[in-house]
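SAMPLE LOG
Freezer: B-3
Tube label: C17
Construct: single chain, 495 aa
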Amino acid sequence: MENIYKPYFDPDYESLIERIHPPRVCIDNDACQDCTLVKIPRYSEAPNGEPLEIKKKKDGTRVDSANKHGILLEMVQVLTDLDLVISKSYICSDGGWFMDVFHVTDQLGNKLTDESLLHYIQQALCANRKQQGISKELQALLGREMNPRHFSTEHTAFEFTGTDRPGLMSEISAVLAELGCHVTTAVAWTHNSRVACMICLEDELKGGPIRDPKRLAHLEEQLENVVEAHHNDKGGERRSLRLTAPVAGRTHTDRRLHQLMFGDKDYENCCGGCDGSGDRIQVSIENCKEKGYSVVNVKSRDRPKLLFDTVCTLTDMQYVVFHAAVSSRGSIAVQEYYIRQIDGGTLGSESERNRVAQCLIAAIERRVTHGLRLDIRIKNRLGLLSDITRVFRENGLSIRMAEIGVQGERASGSFYVTDFSGRDVNPNTIELIRKEIGGTIMAVNKSSFPPSLAASPNRDRSTAASRVDIRPRFSLGSLWSQIERFSSNFGPVGF
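STRUCTURE (predicted):
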């Protein structure tokens, strides 16, 4: 009998460097008067202490193995999940050193001074790099549950994309209630007459996920019937529907919604779309041949989570960000990214550059809200989402964006609504809805902006077309000067 020998690898060896040189996150409240600096250096050493390999392809382009794909998105995700505002950011992750710097404030524009929050940010950023979750003890220290942007893996998940129609959410939630499914979380986005929806379900009687394959198949069949009734199969309208049992890992809600919308190709008509602010979304893309980068410039109205939306789109389109400079000038945000494809190449064709520009415009537009925002807090009960959406439909309201979740015995969420024709909601209708639904319903604002920006001054309510611009606009020297000037202020970095 032939003996086969295989090398043994200690499972702890892979994380040896992380343990010898743990990730260091410096939170600096002294360098700037009006914001907190979060500095995240990253090591570029291989386990043997040698510099990480910079591979060269046949065409001369470089692939830096140290710049792990998606790591920038993970950093941004931690900060945006805490509802922090990122006003500036500098990213450099090429060659032999790495540094991400974020200027952050709370929603009111104040520095971060809560020690438990600062400790949480440090630990969360390190945990993300190690691909670990955040302990319950650390969440308790912060004083709130810090997992709102992740769908629970303990429930059955329902995902849907298709044509947006009035009453669709009501009919879907009614079917779920009739078939004994309790909704624990639901989110929905609409954009360019398309809709993406994610719903977490559990068994009404037994609790927990629905695992019976026959019941899952029947539930999916009934949901398909609802979707078919709202789509014209002869016209070839796109749609997708998926019902899945719990899986390992976590699903980030906002990222998954971007992925669903992208898969549904909602970006196809973005060149003629509008961002709801009166300012055009400008995207320019140019190749920097001497450095081997494609340079992407984005100019748009500033808003919360803008950096997350653009970085998420580039990441999921399989592009790696090596350098970036992001800043806000008044109400306008300017973003500049130096990117390569995941295999090291640049955006070689005009069609590819146009597609990237369209997708970035779509990512920015998706989170722009339209209509009246209704905040709802109510005692949780079976069929609650079905009752809420039914009342909306019976009163002639269409849901433009929605998010609702359950915490203990209470349910809370926000709905952006218009009438079926897209016009403003009659105030008398809101009073009728309050009486029928019960609980606490607050009409927060009527705006094309998320609530945190709606109260800002000088907001132009007119609309204008988005623009895709492929003209040269980049300046590699200006980016380096910004990073070098900023890096000169760095002191010792540590916990």
